[in-house]
Amino acid sequence: MLYDFARPFIFTLDPETAHHVTFSNLDRAHALGLTCLLRPRVADDPVEAMGLAFPNPVGLAAGLDKNAAHIDALADFGFGFIEVGTVTPRPQPGNPAPRLFRLPKATALINRMGFNNDGLDRFVANVAASRARHVVLGLNIGKNADTPIERALDDYLIGLRRVYPLLLDRPGYVAVNISSPNTKNLRSLQGGAELAALLSGLRKARRQLADEHGKRVPLAVKIAPDLDDAELPRVADALASHEVDAVIATNTTVARDGVAGLPHADETGGLSGAPLTARSTEVVRLLAQHLLGAMPVIGVGGIMSGSDAVDKIAAGAALVQLYTGIVYRGPALVGECRRAILQHRQQAGKWPGAATRAA
User: What average pLDDT does the chain have?
Assistant: First the structure.
């Protein structure tokens, strides 16, 4: 409700400026103990996935909190899990501004941020300092823009080894971002030989880390919505054969379906929001149908309402993530999605409390 009043002012600001102003105010509100008022009043809806217990199936997608600097404040929104990053080994400024654009008539965003972040040292310190232990934490890793694509694995291994210890005493997973359209050639890592080499290296490193620390931390891979339908089974099989624990579907799209002719529609970058809803849900459905439970699918892309979230779950997603919907709808969207999914699961008899009530 409050966000509905604030949004007209926020939208008068440049999108990236608005992002910083909003988070600055959110942190102040958290310090005063006010963000707890944002927590939705909805029953717990636990989900087991990747060997982790999620308090509820609604999460925050990577990209909103790149440096893991706002975990505690965001946890008060009622998320069951929060994914932070993408973080690269070394700090980098990302692409030149302007690089973030609103398309209000399409309820969409276009971004070409380019993995702007403060690097692993700051990221690790921020995660270690966070106190929100009731939510599952996803740590999203990527490669630096100036790292040659043929050496991308080196950056991912650096990231994996640095963030892995952060999840030894708290529930979480590491997400591997190989699908952003804003880092040159990054999406080529989804190719057959390239993907196999990357996943093989990550599998070996994760096994070594698990032996060293006595805990196996789950690994998820985030893919693009622009893969052909025929490519999805190949990618899914590669993930499964290399012991990946979940697939995140999907990242932003380079397609411009549904926004042609709108201001900023011709800007380069990844499109997110309502125009991505249908394609992302279709990718979730195709993956779920092929995997047959071999690994969970995390559905993200164009969830602008509780109904959109339910569609992702009905298509086969075990969990869902929000991003652009938060920009347009605010924190209330979290509670709306949780209620809608809970009702859907109750009606389907898949909610843990359903058997108790029936008895």
Answer: 95
Answer whether 250's CB lies under 8 Å from 187's CB: no
* Positive or negative torsion for Cα 293, 220, 333, 287: negative
**Alpha-helical regions (H) of the chain:** 2-10, 15-31, 71-75, 119-129, 152-163, 192-213, 231-241, 277-291, 306-315, 324-329, 332-348, 352-358
Report the catalytic residues: 180
Among candidate residues 281, 268, 73, 277, the one with its CA nearest the CA of residue 184: 268
| Residue-wise burial string across 97-128, b where 16 or more C-beta atoms lie within 10 A, e elsewhere | eebbbbbeebbbbbbbbbbbbbebeebbebbe
pLDDT digits (tens, 9 = 90+) for 237-268: 999 999 999 999 999 999 999 999 999 999 99
**Residue 112, token pair as written in the block:** 């070409």
Quickly state the pLDDT bin for 353 (edges 50, 70, 90): low
The pLDDT, as a whole number, for residue 82 is 98
Residue 5: per-residue pLDDT: 80
- Say how far residue 180 (Cα) sits from the centre of its chain: 12
| Structure-block tokens of residue 3 | 């966000």
Integer Cα distance of 140 and 176 in angstroms = 6
Amino acid at 292: L
Domains for the chain: give ranges and CATH numbers. 2-349 (3.20.20.70)
